[in-house]
């Protein structure tokens, strides 16, 4: 099971180092930080060997690259991931205006945000999904975002402050599954629920989908909520296109079935298809740093 493979789920670095990043962005720009990151990445690849191997295998097995090209692409993947992390801290430092955002498919989002019913945003660990909460504002509906609770106090405080300004409420994923009651109530109030749909938490049920030439497990959570509460699902991917530019891709996730279980499976396969299309266009922004496929 993918959920049983080890991944930390938190931002690397100590609290002191993270505070230092915020101070750095208050004094200098992104380009200098990216330059430093380029030199740091090789050490991260060396000392986080399991993470390195997961991405190396991704390029070697899913893309069929040679050993040398897989190594080079693994470095590039880590470097882009470092940029994504730095971009978050730039926002923490008050530099929201440093980024330009282009939205594709915004009409799908506007249709639902202006409706009465709640809906679900299906996110993933591709690109910089979290930064959408910092740079965009839903306006008419509160967003309830499921998050991993193991972040440092520095990240939690700044994340909560910036997201709070955009009416985003953080809902920590807990072992007792109490977060499910929170998101269920939010949907019934007509609010938005945002949750990652490419990682399995604990013993959550999953749907096995065809993905990039292999089989991978996708969590049922968002799609079960959709099936049982008749809530629509949107996939939202936030991809980095340049030093200061992001593109947000919004697509409806649709699936039909004679039973709830069949509908859940159809929705999961639809999301997996949308995710695959994005990863094929932005292969270096795949940031699941563990062995994702069942045959690995």
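-> sequence recovered:
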């Amino acid at each position: 099971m993918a959920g049983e493979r080890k991944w930390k789920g938190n931002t690397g670095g100590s609290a002191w180092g993270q505070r230092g990043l915020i101070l750095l962005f208050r004094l200098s720009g992104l380009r200098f930080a990216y330059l430093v990151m380029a030199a740091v990445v090789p050490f991260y690849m060396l000392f986080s060997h399991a993470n390195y191997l997961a991405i190396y295998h991704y390029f070697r097995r899913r893309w069929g690259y040679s050993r040398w090209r897989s190594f080079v692409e693994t470095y590039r993947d880590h470097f882009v991931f470092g940029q994504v992390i730095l971009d978050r801290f730039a926002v923490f430092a008050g530099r929201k205006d440093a980024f330009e955002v282009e939205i594709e498919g915004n009409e799908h989002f506007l249709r639902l945000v202006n409706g009465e019913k709640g809906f679900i945003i299906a996110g993933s660990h591709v690109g910089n999904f979290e930064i959408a909460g910092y740079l965009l504002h839903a306006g008419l509906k509160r967003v309830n975002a499921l998050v991993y609770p193991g972040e440092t106090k520095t990240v939690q405080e700044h994340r909560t402050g910036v997201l709070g300004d955009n009416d985003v409420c953080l809902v920590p994923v807990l072992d007792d599954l109490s977060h499910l009651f929170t998101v269920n109530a939010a949907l019934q109030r007509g609010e938005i629920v945002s949750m990652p749909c490419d990682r399995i938490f604990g013993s959550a049920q999953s749907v096995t989908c065809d993905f990039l030439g292999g089989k991978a497990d996708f969590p049922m959570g968002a799609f079960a909520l959709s099936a049982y509460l008749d809530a629509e699902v949107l996939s939202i991917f936030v991809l980095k296109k340049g030093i200061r530019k992001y593109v947000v891709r919004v697509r409806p996730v649709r699936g039909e079935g004679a039973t709830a279980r069949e509908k859940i499976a159809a929705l999961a396969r639809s999301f997996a298809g949308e995710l695959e299309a994005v990863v094929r266009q932005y292969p270096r922004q795949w940031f699941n740093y563990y062995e994702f496929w069942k045959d690995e």
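The CA atoms of residues 227 and 259 lie 9 Å apart.
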